[in-house]
Each structure stands twice: as C-alpha cells, then as structure tokens.
Write a structure and sequence with these properties.
- 18% of the residues lie in helices and 37% in strands.
- With 186 residues, the chain is α+β, with helices and mostly antiparallel strands.
- Strands 1, 2, 3, 4, 5, 6, 7, 8 and 9 form a 9-stranded antiparallel β-sheet that branches.
C-alpha cells in the first residue's frame, strides 16, 4: 500500500478487503491476529485469534478453534460478535460486526483439517484437555492420546465494518454495512 491517503469510500472498502486477504498469508501483517469479542452471559469476552482465510465475495473471515473452547459455547448461545483489528503501519482500526457460525464435521472443517493434520499446528486440536482446563487434570486424562481431533472452523460473516484512520493530517471514519458506505465523525 502506498503512503497516499485513499479519498473515496469505494477505494477504502476495496483496500480494507485487500488488506484482510493479505493478512492471511503475510505473517507480519498487523491484522493477522485480531481480537474476537463474544458474549458470555451478560458480559463481553475477548481473545486474540489467528485470521486463517478471507472470502471477500462472501464477506467472511475464518478462524480455527478447538470445539471445546469457551468461545464456541458463547457463539452457539449468542451468534454475534465483533472482530477488532489494528494496523500501526496503515494507521487503520477496523471493528467488524459479525454473525458467527461453527462447523465441526462438514466439508469446511474436514478439508481444512486434512491440510493441517500433519503440521505442528495440529497439536492445538489434539489435546485430551479442553482449553482452559486446570493442568492438574492432565493426571486424570490418561496417556494424552485422543481418538479424534477437536478441530472446528468459525466463520464470521461481516455485517458491518467501522473503519477508522488515525492520521497526522486528520482522522477519518467510515461505516460500510447493508445501508451502504458513509462517512461518520471520528
């Protein structure tokens, strides 16, 4: 991306999705590890996730997870969330309002598991203990071998993007959603 500021809302929206796509392959991209916030009862819960894939046409962000993770239970009970991304290099913050779905056994999960099952990343989904379990429970978990992986795919369908640019020549903010694109007060 050049240092020149983008002027039009269509240019900005296109650039946002280009940068999201770039974050899936560029391990140094600031947007590679966004924060996913979900609802737990009457409180917000947030954690850093790894952006694995972006489907621009469908406006979807994909993350991998252990199906026993707390965020899975949260999204099953309340399938809405927010993904927050900050890029120091771009001076851009994104807040994406998303609808969350989970796939544990269909093609979306099985095809992706087939790609990573022989990599070091597979270990994240093979633990006999669920994420957040006390380590003392490892004594009761047996040898550590599991019958199957707990791999799942979270799809975040982007319903709205709140884009904020922090710039020395003046901050700018825009929203992109079902109502269209519009400038708003930063």
């Amino acid at each position: 991306m050049t240092n020149a500021r983008l002027d039009s809302l269509p240019e900005i929206e296109t650039a946002v999705w280009q940068q999201l796509e770039a974050a899936t392959t560029d391990k140094a991209h600031d947007w590679r590890s966004p924060v996913l916030a979900t609802v737990q009862g009457d409180a917000a819960d947030a954690r850093t996730v790894l952006l694995r894939e972006v489907a621009v046409r469908e406006k979807q962000l994909l993350f991998y997870t252990d199906e026993r993770a707390g965020k899975v239970h949260q999204l099953l009970n309340h399938p809405r969330g927010t993904v927050v991304l900050w890029s120091r290099r771009l001076g851009w913050q994104l807040r994406c309002r998303v609808r969350l779905t989970l796939e544990v056994s269909g093609l979306a999960a099985s095809s992706r598991w087939a790609r990573i099952r022989l990599t070091p990343s597979a270990q994240d989904y093979l633990s006999p203990l669920p994420p957040g379990a006390p380590l003392a429970d490892v004594l009761h978990a047996g040898s550590g071998a599991v019958a199957r992986a707990y791999f799942a795919v979270i799809s975040a369908e982007v319903e709205a993007v709140d884009w904020l640019e922090l710039h020395r020549d003046g901050h700018r903010r825009a929203v992109f959603d079902a109502q269209g694109a519009r400038w708003i007060q930063p």
